[in-house]
Amino acid sequence: MKTSIVFLLCISVFPGFSQGRVVREDETGFAECNVFFPGQVPPEGFTEPFHVKICQQYNKEPRFATLYSTKDKIPLYSAFKFTKPAQSEEENWLVEPQVSFFIPGNLR
């Protein structure tokens, strides 16, 4: 119970942590993240109750879809659309803070 309260407090104080959502079972495919699959149809055959569909967002826009196994604690697959970025002199990397110290020269 105490952990749940701390988690809810963190989400309300740091809303950036909640950019993504678990897709309900009654929704078709990955909902708004279906656009990341050919023909907007995600792979089939992953029907175990511990397989969770997640539509992840960045800046409030769908960024990629992930099928996550809560049993094995790993993503089974992720899907996104690659678009070549515009030419820019500045390079911005999206790096998880807890692994940024592994990057030579700390590219952030």
Task: Provide keyphrases for this structure.
108 residues, alpha+beta, 1 helix, 4 strands, globular
The Rg value, from CA coordinates, equals 17 Å
Oligomeric state of this protein: single chain
Helix content: 10-25%
Total of DSSP H or I helical runs spanning 4+ residues: 1
Low-pLDDT stretches are 3-15
Short recap of the structure:
With 108 residues, this protein is of the alpha+beta class. The protein has one helix at 2-13; strands at 20-22, 51-58, 61-69, 74-79. The termini are far apart.
Which helices and strands appear, and what pairs or packs with what?
Blueprint: H1 2-13, E1 20-22, E2 51-58, E3 61-69, E4 74-79
Antiparallel strand pairs: 1-2, 2-3, 3-4
Q: What does this 3D model show about the protein?
A:
- Keywords: Signal.
- InterPro entries: DNA/RNA_non-sp_Endonuclease_sf, ENDOD1, His-Me_finger_sf.
- The protein has 108 residues and is an alpha+beta fold.
- The chain is built from one helix and four strands; from the N terminus they run αββββ.
- A hairpin with a 4-residue loop joins strand 3 and strand 4.
- The N and C termini lie far apart (37 Å).
- The N terminus is likely disordered.
